[in-house]
Design brief:
The protein is an alpha+beta fold. It has eight helices and twelve strands. The protein has helices spanning 2-18, 28-61, 79-108, 214-243, 263-266, 272-280, 299-302, 305-321, and strands spanning 115-122, 125-130, 135-137, 140-143, 148-154, 159-162, 169-172, 178-182, 188-194, 206-212, 249-250, 255-256. Helix 2 (28-61) packs antiparallel against helix 3. The longest helix is centred in the N-terminal third of the chain and has 34 residues, at 28-61. The N and C termini lie far apart (94 Å). Bound molecules: dinuclear copper ion. Dinuclear copper ion binds next to loops. Dinuclear copper ion (CUA) is lined by residues 121, 124, 159, 194, 196-198, 202, 205.
Length: 322
């Protein structure tokens, strides 16, 4: 039995030593989290070894002989022993609490200089908005070695943001804002995963997190801006053709309506505010030769705020071209 025990123990010890238990630690926070993890684990291993050692020794040393049919001697406990096995775990649990508390304060501290990214979880995707650059993407791109505050939000049910290599993980909850502070230290591609069971697509709720150099980050932001701009003006043009083309002529969109003013003539030089007002409140100013009340007055309800802005952007751009 002793030989078998030693053999099994040896194999398990080798497995424990040679398996990389944790994913690579690729953020400044990850190293601190790992330190707490190993601190707790080593205490657990030491206590387990102590308890298992005493048990095995007792089984071997105090085993009743084959002809020993007596009852065991009556024991009333041992005050000293009880004080020790209460005081030692209390001290260990206190140490773990204090150490964890200190590390938690460190990794959740918001640095003075940091970038903000708005993270939104919804069944079953993540989206990442960069308020400074006014860019939104389905991919989280961050510059290496720079602290970022991810402000988490959810549209429908509770989700949970996690990139294993960064360790930092937190729930995204509808109606409140939570945050994660992270400083990625390694360039590469990682996986953002949802770790809160949020519906049928939960297992597929993943996104790419890409850590790049500062130059790479600037380039990515520029690309996103250009992509958004061309998508925006295409959408604005389509909206114009569908919603306005029957009544208004505009060469850029190829519409020939003649019910309302010819926009090729009246649009040049008009500001975004004037154009927006003319769409949502057409009676505010009537072009010479036209009657009030002809253009529908419910475009504010027909169009979403974003559609209205796309339409205005498109018309401002077209007005500038003419
Ligand atoms: Cu979102 Cu699971």
């Amino acid at each position: 039995m002793v030989l078998v025990g030693v053999a099994v123990g040896g194999v398990l010890a080798l497995v424990a030593i040679f398996i990389p238990w944790l994913p690579p630690a690729d953020s400044t926070q990850a190293h601190k989290v790992d330190d707490v993890y190993w601190f707790v684990t080593i205490i657990c291993i030491a206590i387990f070894a102590l308890v298992a050692g005493v048990s095995v020794y007792s089984v071997w040393k105090f085993r009743a002989g084959p002809d020993d049919l007596d009852d065991g001697s009556p024991i009333h406990g041992h005050t000293g022993l009880e004080v020790v096995w209460t005081a030692v775990p209390a001290a260990l649990v206190t140490a773990i609490s204090i150490y964890s508390g200190v590390v938690l304060t460190q990794i959740e501290k918001i640095p003075a200089q940091h970038r903000v990214v708005q993270v939104t979880g919804q069944q079953f995707t993540w989206s990442f908005a960069y308020p400074e650059a006014k860019v939104t993407s389905g991919q989280l791109t961050l510059p290496v070695n720079q602290p970022v505050e991810l402000k988490l939000n959810a549209k429908d049910v509770i989700h949970s943001f996690w990139v294993p290599q960064w360790r930092m993980k937190k729930d995204a909850v509808p109606g409140i804002e939570t945050n994660v502070i992270v400083t990625p230290t390694k360039v590469g591609t990682f996986t953002v995963m949802c770790t809160e069971l949020c519906g049928l697509g939960h297992a597929a709720m993943r996104a790419r997190a890409v850590v790049v150099t500062q130059d790479g980050f600037n380039r990515w932001i520029q690309q996103q801006k250009q992509a958004a701009a061309s998508a925006g003006s295409a959408q604005g043009k389509t909206l114009f053709t569908q919603q306005c083309g029957t009544c208004h002529r505009l060469a850029d969109a190829g519409t020939k309506g003649a019910v309302g003013p010819d926009l090729d003539k009246v649009l040049p030089g008009k500001s975004a505010d004037f154009i927006r007002e003319s769409i949502v409140n057409p009676n505010a100013e009537i072009a010479p030769g036209f009657q009030p009340g002809v253009m529908p007055q419910d475009f504010k309800d027909r169009l979403s705020t974003q559609q209205l802005e796309r339409l205005v952007e498109y018309l401002v751009k077209t007005a500038g071209k003419a």
